[in-house]
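We give this protein:

***
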Amino acid sequence: MIGSVTDASKPSTISRFSRGEYRNLALLLACLSAIGPFSIDTYLPSFLEIGARLGASPLAVQQTLTAYLTPFAIMTLWHGAISDALGRRRVVLVSMALFALASVGCATVRSIEALWLFRAIQGTTAGAGMVVGRAIIRDLFSGPEAHRLFAHVSMVFAIAPAIAPVIGGQLHAWFGWRSVFVFLTLFSIGLWFWCLFKLPESLDKNHRHSLHPLHLARSYKSVLTRVPFLAACAAVSFNFNGFFVYVTSAPVFLMKYLLVKETGFLWLFGPATSGMMLGSWISSRLASHNHKKPVWIGFALMSAAALSNFALNCLVPARLPWAVLPLFFYNMGMTVAMPSLIILALDLFPARRGLAASCQSFIQTGTNSLTAAIIAPLACVSTLRLAASQLAFVSIGIVATFIFLVMSRKEKTAQHFTAGSGRS
């Protein structure tokens, strides 16, 4: 097992990583993060059958997404703080065990209300791997190495949105919608054993933090009131939602507008995932101490893709393959920029990376939840509205990034002035 760092407040690189250990860690953290998209995308092809079998309306089935995403967002605010106190590994193991039990519940429900309940329990536990995984990376690595591992994790993680609906569609066609949740049960059990034997504990006991309410309140306040942090998190969140609005609208977008069958969700997730993988590879090649360059390259790609998508939907009816082609370039730009933006956000709080990772994930998943509950139902009325939503999301992301740069520069100037005054 890989040893833990000795100073949680100063990111340092583990001195001796074998190639096999590095690859195992990257793949394991990617799979832990993939629990989220697997929980969302795998059962999308089964929406119609779930409604028919449980006697539920399309809106009631759609709300199973909200039932999952809302507690997912709330609990991401706590996973990191709890791991700061109890250790990274323990939080992941308990969460994966509870997720497996909730998946069993989803597979055996007899009403839509029961499905809402177990989906909520899934959402409560599914985010631990993503949040704690980001803290583990920043515990173990710094600078370009942290950027590179973020990018490598993203590269592997990018496969999940592509294969999840394909797996779900095939399971649906062969065994019915309940088999999707049986698959999630087996997947999470496998991850639990993998973590048990291979996940390192990266936070030394001497550098853990109290869960005392007053201490936590002060810590959360310091993070959630710092404008540069909020701006960087907003940029990550809105950039991602430029794609996520298509994910939550996938059944309508593909099956209604593009006339794709339940087994054809790869038309959307194939190009999107290919773009994410290529963008992650580019991001790993751009890894350096200068995190701003990948951010602006990413925004250039996202802006061009979103503008092209909007223009195409204005000019011609939505048809395959061009209707999904802009998503390839959009997701490529998104994953070029994302590792740098996350690192810039977490590095503002080097002594509380777990809590900062929780807050960053909370902001992102909270935005996802609002998109699923409000934006997606309004946007999926037409493909033009979906394209307009994507363009609006990336525009907000650009504004948020400018705010981050301006405010972080002001902070550095103020700190330099204060330090100079103290010396004098």
